[in-house]
# Entry
Amino acid sequence: MPPPNGAGKDAAAAGIPIDAAAVVGSAAAGDKRASAASSSLREEIVERKQQLKAQDAATEKHTTFGRWMNDRTAFRRPDLRQRERNMRTLPKKLAKMSRLTLEEEGHLDVEEGEVPDRVTQIDIAAAVDVQTARKRFDLTLDKLGPYLMDYSPNGTDLALCGLRGHTATLKWQTATLVGEAYLKDKCTDVKYLVDGTMYAVAQRRYVYMYTKECVEMHVIPSMANVDRLDFLQRHLLLVGTSSTFSQLAYLDISTGQPLGAKGPATVKDPTLALRVNPANGVVATGDTRGVVKFWSPTVTDPLVQLKCHTGGIKEIAFHPGGRFLLTLGVDNRLKIWDTRTLRTIDEIATSFTFASMDVSAKGMLAVGGGAHVHVWHNVFTQQSALARRSTPDLKHDVGYGCAVQRLRYCPYEDVLGIGHTRGFSSVVVPGSGEANPDFFVANPYETDKHRQERVVGSLLDKLQPETISMDLQIAGVDAERLKEYQENLQANRKAKSIREKKARRDTKDNTVRKYRDPTTGDIDEEIEEELDVKEFGAARALKKTKEELLKEKKKARWDTKDTADKVRSKQTMRRSRIVQRKRADRAFAEGDADDNDQQPRGATKIAADGSTAASERRDGSAAPPPRTKGRRTEAGGARGGNGDDDAPPTSSHVSLMKKNAALSRFL
# Structure
């Protein structure tokens, strides 16, 4: 092989043979190629280390929720500082281990031709391991039910509450009874607070707090007549509402101070459902008018009012991410709403009358009512088409004679708890729980020491009530369209009030009103809904005056009287002044008055010119003027009566006849 250019001259000058110089040149070229390959490998290694470092940093940031710590924030004591360093490095180690020890999520696989909703709990228990099969059990408590239940935040404890005052706490995985008490009072709800060591019970009068051994801790007078409870885990707030009285109350359990109470003037309607959005802490309530109201303790009025159903709302549930809201109404309709745009995503008409529902950590929906429990999965995706999927993925019957009262998924477990009228049931739902829990939020395997540290950390990381708000992403509003909508709404309200007034008037008069169309002139039997409808002469002619209505009422009362009442009424009418006047006028018209010679002494004589002269007494003295009573004299004749039949009537006679004619027409 010839040496490279210039290599022979250098070798000859140095006294080296030509063959040896060729070998030295090839070795130098090989070293250069090896060094280039090693440098590229080192660059790849460095790049890979940077990628792994960035991945570890992202995992650590996700695990610690962005809470960065350094030595400046550590304590001054060396042992605490060392412990702080260990705690700071723990997320990195945990992140590295989590990539190697990930557990797979459960799911339900069926054979070809098999229907998923026909898979029973017996089939599931036969297919899973022994530890999972033990999580399926039933508690028969048919004396003090129906029962409500709640799981602790880490899913290890279970609290049961009977309507007739029975309450109990137990470690449900090991079937260990922790505490039991008979309160001898009506209990309407139960809710765990910070952890499994304390819980709250809504009783007949007030809300009470108990330890896990069912020992009474506190009584909360500010929450009176409350029968719905929930807890804000990050804000340490207990919220309660009433289905009888329109009220909503908050309580800070870290300080014991009530805040943000809403009275009947604000709530306005009794509450049937209560849930807390786990993402932002907003409380959602469903009332008897089908309206969902979103509340914050620092705002007096509701943040948003959303009309969801035509009737009352039985139950409300949120997705664990807080983006979706589910409502179940008395109209047997289940709706899914987007909490950011406040629009309906999906809707289904249920075939049963459901009473409760819940959403698992993996988005599986469970709905229960009567003796039936239905479970759907993937209901929050665009490909779900829940309205077209009338068949659920899993069915379960709690038994004949049982009625489901509450459904709750157990955190970090593939278990669904069912509280019903005859006790409690635990069923296995594959794929419903979170397989890899976040130990900074809740640790299912924590000890007492870990629990104490977590409680202290939750108190230090407590969020203030001012941070509770909604993240609405509603598009811009068209001003012209909004103005037109408001005008139409006002016009519809005015038309409705006009229709109601006319309907009340028609009902009162008990007559059929006919209204004429202003455009065609035709008479329409129905009342027009337009605002410019006016009553024309045809409608006015059908109206009756007050005198006619009064005469009809008097006639109706006369017809309802029996014979004896009519006789007594006629006798009274004979003695009345009006009848006497009428009788006197009739006698005057018929000419019953006698001649002047036949008149008794002392009677008044009327001359032809209208002048009167008193007759003399027998003793020659002038007679006193006659005393009149009404329109008759003491002699029984009409005032101004003339003894002669041929005497012309005077002006007083004419006025009297006119009055009598008007009186006869009135009667």
